[in-house]
Amino acid sequence: MITLHHCVSARSFRPLWALEEIGLPYHLEMLPFPPRMMARPFLDINPLGTVPALFDGPMRMTESAAICQFLAARFSPGALDVGVDEPDFGPYLNYLHFGEATLTFPQTLVLRYSRFEPPERRQPQVASDYAKWFLARLRTLEPLLAEQEYLCAKRFTAADISVGYALLLAQHLGLNERFTPSVLAYWQRLQDRDGFKRAMAAQKQAAVDQGVPTVPSPDLVAT
Ligand SMILES: N[C@@H](CCC(=O)N[C@@H](CS)C(=O)NCC(=O)O)C(=O)O
Predict the structure, then answer these.
(1) Pocket probe mutation, ligand 1, options 4, 6, 7, 11, max atoms within 8 Å of Cβ
(2) Distance between CA atoms of 174 and 114, rounded to whole angstroms?
(3) 183 close to 141: Cβ distance less than 8 angstroms
(4) CA distances from 108 to 104, 132, 209 (A)
(5) Per-block mean pLDDT, blocks of 10 residues, the chain (223 long)
(6) Predicted TM-score of the model (pTM)
């Protein structure tokens, strides 16, 4: 049985969404955010203190895009996964990692300098500059998404989950109002998926059952 350690709407939403799309059984272990401070015993499970942490038997993974790649390759060949022999194998890997390395990275600086730091250390200029940087990077998807429904391989894949999470985080940061039209339509398509809705419902139910707040940390929500 797969176990996923998760905080509501944190990056661990990527593997949760993949698990729901694939239909795999899993156990969801909910944590308050940030676990490093709010759930100290979690450091024994993942010394980084970050989510996700996914276990498949004794095997542990802690990178959300890599976990999606693993789940897709092992449990969803020809569907969420794009095989090495498919023409879009390269673009698939590129978008899968673009979601975390290129899109989520500037968002973390927005979060840090507008929400996480104590008021006297906040840097509105840094937050606003990195919000613009994120939106500029996101805008590069506009011509592609004006032409096609999903990022690659003419179907929904793990790459869409990776980029889709960056859009969810952007929404929490209030940046969705600045999405370009085709990106906005794509984001709506992703949210309309049954797998996305099931993942949202699963994290809420697990949070209720385990006594963890059901809404994202105030640090992750647009004010
Ligand atoms: N590159 C990692 C980043 C993991 C990460 O930083 N997760 C955040 C949640 S979105 C976290 O746990 N932050 C709490 C902390 O840094 O203490 C991934 O994609 O999984």
Answers:
(1) 11
(2) 12
(3) yes
(4) 6, 13, 29
(5) 97 98 98 93 97 98 98 98 98 98 96 91 95 97 98 98 98 95 98 98 97 77 46
(6) 0.96
CB 128 within 8 A of CB 178: no
| Cα–Cα dist 168/173, whole Å | 9
Q: Which mutation among 4, 45, 51 tests ligand 1's pocket best, with the greatest number of atoms within 8 A of CB?
A: 51
State which amino acid sits at residue 77. P
Contact 206, 4 (CB under 8 A): no
How does DSSP assign 44-108, residue by residue? HH-TT--S-EEEETTEEE--HHHHHHHHHHHH-TTTTS--TTSTTHHHHHHHHHIIIIIIIHHHH
51 CA distance to ligand 1 middle (Å): 5
On whether the CB atoms of residues 36 and 45 are closer than 8 A, the answer is: no
